[in-house]
């Protein structure tokens, strides 16, 4: 298939082929045994290959003058190796270089090295045991030089997993007759209520908010006659939470659907989607998960084929029996969520479960109260490894009740008049859910910080790069 070869596809079968490869030169060095031989390790994505230069002293000098991370093009022959290599992902063959070009010369000294940023947990442990600890690149430095940090195997792997999550979300929902929509990110009022909203100056003296979710418009799409919709899009939260799991901008995976009988129909979609997603990731992202595991060791997610559903009351009862008292009718705090996650794992052997029927007071204004007891709501949260990844609910589709609930939440009705009015023209009962893409990836991969699952994270302290 042409002379351009993908490093990741080079194997025994390619031996003897003449290839052209463009890649990052992650290491260039002189042979230790034979002085007139030099080696270049090339990297592309998560794959690395050894190239050997022999014969031309001029080409060797040129190679040795190349700064690490320069982009080179190599023309050469694929040759079988007697002994498989240990330090490149392509182990059975190498490229014997005939021609070498430099396409983009990197700076002589990079602010962080890919090698340091990508060291495995095992390397750290071994060095520690020998009493010669290795340099460790801190999180902020990594994020300052994110374009270099992303080149590590784990950096590449996380975003390949993210890509699979996003694809599966689209594919699964499309197969269930959802259609993809795009809602505005500039809106006239806050979509989730509360203070966590970015406000900005719009045109003609108007003030606009950056959408905290597609909530209002995804519901309006249902009003507009689409029975099932989903959106993958940016959402903005003016969070003041400097935590491991909050960003000021993240990617929302949202869905909204008509409900025929019960809001558990929404839970059924979440259940089917996530069980399928976990299976898909485990089967199709083996290399990626291994690369992440080498740098940031984690246990695979435990999940059940049919997702456990616990009521909020059952959940707080479990916590109570374990000695954790929850303020009645309040949301669970982070520690209580973690604790419940542990208890559920011990009792049901799963890291993934749905907690439903939350107190109404703990939910946004648009949430449908329970028909049998309006102190509770037709809502749910979904937990992975003891942290929330999804929240969902049935929505109020009666305009009077909706306006009353907005007022009770201190929301200026005039700012969302267009939303409330939409329910006057005939709307079926409906519900939906929203997940945070970065949170799903962070928790599935057992990462300790959401910033690792965002290419260029935005948090209260960080607006660049
Ligand atoms: O729980 P949230 O705020 O719910 C909504 O936005 C609703 N409109 C969803 C619905 O359809 N009912 O956010 C949904 C998810 C959370 O479960 C979490 O995964 C993620 O979005 N999330 C955040 N991720 C990163 N940084 C933040 N600041 C986040 N806030 C919420």
From TrEMBL:
<comment type="similarity">
    <text>Belongs to the class-II aminoacyl-tRNA synthetase family. Type 2 subfamily.</text>
</comment>
<dbReference type="GO" id="GO:0004815">
    <property type="term" value="F:aspartate-tRNA ligase activity"/>
</dbReference>
<keyword id="KW-0067">ATP-binding</keyword>
<dbReference type="GO" id="GO:0006422">
    <property type="term" value="P:aspartyl-tRNA aminoacylation"/>
</dbReference>
<dbReference type="GO" id="GO:0005524">
    <property type="term" value="F:ATP binding"/>
</dbReference>
<dbReference type="GO" id="GO:0003723">
    <property type="term" value="F:RNA binding"/>
</dbReference>
<keyword id="KW-0030">Aminoacyl-tRNA synthetase</keyword>
<dbReference type="GO" id="GO:0005829">
    <property type="term" value="C:cytosol"/>
</dbReference>
<keyword id="KW-0436">Ligase</keyword>
<feature type="domain" description="Aminoacyl-transfer RNA synthetases class-II family profile">
    <location>
        <begin position="159"/>
        <end position="465"/>
    </location>
</feature>
<protein>
    <recommendedName>
        <fullName>aspartate--tRNA ligase</fullName>
        <ecNumber>6.1.1.12</ecNumber>
    </recommendedName>
</protein>
<keyword id="KW-0963">Cytoplasm</keyword>
<dbReference type="GO" id="GO:0017101">
    <property type="term" value="C:aminoacyl-tRNA synthetase multienzyme complex"/>
</dbReference>
<keyword id="KW-0648">Protein biosynthesis</keyword>
<keyword id="KW-0547">Nucleotide-binding</keyword>
């Amino acid at each position: 298939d042409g002379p351009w070869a993908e490093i990741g596809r080079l194997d025994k079968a390619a031996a003897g082929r003449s290839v052209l490869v463009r890649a990052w030169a992650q290491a260039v060095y002189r042979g230790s045994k034979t002085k007139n031989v030099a080696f270049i390790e090339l990297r592309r994505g998560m794959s690395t290959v050894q190239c050997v230069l022999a014969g031309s002293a001029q080409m060797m000098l040129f190679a040795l003058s190349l700064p690490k991370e320069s982009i080179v093009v190599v023309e050469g022959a694929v040759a079988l190796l007697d002994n498989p290599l240990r330090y490149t992902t392509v182990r059975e063959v190498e490229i014997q270089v005939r021609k070498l070009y430099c396409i983009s010369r990197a700076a002589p000294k990079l602010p962080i090295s890919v090698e340091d940023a990508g060291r495995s947990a095992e390397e750290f442990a071994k060095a520690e045991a020998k009493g010669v600890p290795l340099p460790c690149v801190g999180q902020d430095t990594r994020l300052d030089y994110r374009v270099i940090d992303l080149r590590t195997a784990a950096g590449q792997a996380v975003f390949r997993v993210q890509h699979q999550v996003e694809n599966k979300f689209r594919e699964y929902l499309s197969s269930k007759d959802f259609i993809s929509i795009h809602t505005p990110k500039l809106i006239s009022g806050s979509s989730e209520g509360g203070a966590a909203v970015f406000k900005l100056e719009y045109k003609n003296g108007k003030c606009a908010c950056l959408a905290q979710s597609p909530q209002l418009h995804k519901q309006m799409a249902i009003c507009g006659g689409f029975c099932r919709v989903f959106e993958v899009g940016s959402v903005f939260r003016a969070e003041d939470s400097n935590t491991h799991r909050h960003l000021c901008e993240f990617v929302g995976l949202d869905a909204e659907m008509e409900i025929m009988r019960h809001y558990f129909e929404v839970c059924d979609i979440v259940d089917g989607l996530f069980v399928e997603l976990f299976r898909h990731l485990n089967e199709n992202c083996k290399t990626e998960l291994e690369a992440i595991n080498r740098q940031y060791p984690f246990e695979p997610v435990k999940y059940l084929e049919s997702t456990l559903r616990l009521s909020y009351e059952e959940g707080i009862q479990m916590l109570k029996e374990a000695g954790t008292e929850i303020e009645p009718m309040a949301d669970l705090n982070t520690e209580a969520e973690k604790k419940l996650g542990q208890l559920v794992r011990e009792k049901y052997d799963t890291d993934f479960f749905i907690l439903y029927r939350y107190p109404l007071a703990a939910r946004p204004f648009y949430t449908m109260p329970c028909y049998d007891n309006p102190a509770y709501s037709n809502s749910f949260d979904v937990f992975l490894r003891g942290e929330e990844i999804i929240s969902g609910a049935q929505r109020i589709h009666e305009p009077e009740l909706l306006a009353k609930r907005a007022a009770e939440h201190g929301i200026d009705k005039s700012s969302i008049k267009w939303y409330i009015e939409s329910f006057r023209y005939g709307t079926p009962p409906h519900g939906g859910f929203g997940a945070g893409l970065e949170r799903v990836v962070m928790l599935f991969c057992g990462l300790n910080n959401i910033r690792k699952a965002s290419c260029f994270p935005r948090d209260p302290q960080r607006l660049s790069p």
